[in-house]
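Hey, I'm writing a tutorial for new members on how sequence and structure tokens pair up, and I'd like a real worked example in the thread rather than a made-up one. If someone can provide the structure for the chain below, I'll link this post from the tutorial.
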Amino acid sequence: MGYLITLEGGEGAGKTSVLKRLAVFLEQQGFSVVSTREPGGIEISEQIRKVILDQNNVEMDPRTEALLYAAARRQHLVEKIIPALEAGKVVLCDRYIDSSLAYQGHARGLGISEIFSINKFAIDKYMPDLTLYFDIQPEIGLARIEKDGNREVNRLDVESIKFHEAVREGYQMLIQQYPERIQVIDADNEIDTVAQAAQKAVLAFMKINEKEADR
């Protein structure tokens, strides 16, 4: 089996940029890598993504939002992630279950345990092997988005600063709950520094697991 490594964080944390660099780095180390994202990654899930993130869908109920994310995640998992893991590849995924727990579970007020139950049904046993959480102050992240003319501005980007602060708070709760799986990367730094920190964390994880596999 391969490894499922997820990248998490608030809006504008730089996950997507780091993921691209991380994929190149791991391939240079001899690993076979599959890069993907959520919601999306495959055709059906990309269609669901458009519905979720459409700025016109302001009337979307939080529970509807949570269920759509779980549905997109299930299809993505079955079509793309599981086959890659079974082929022994390293899957780098831009967002996964922790996003639902932080955004819908905590920030939307639906409850982390309730959202976990919905997603447990969707992902079965496929929890991340390692999660990199890119921690950034919401004000800095949103300012980055505003400066970046190439990035899509979605329905979540235009939420209130209070919502984004609640998302960050939700992630902090998850870090306490899963300290062995989630590693914190300071995303307030320049992209090169952030990418290097991510590479170091993943390489250390790989070495530890290779040693355990050799026992």
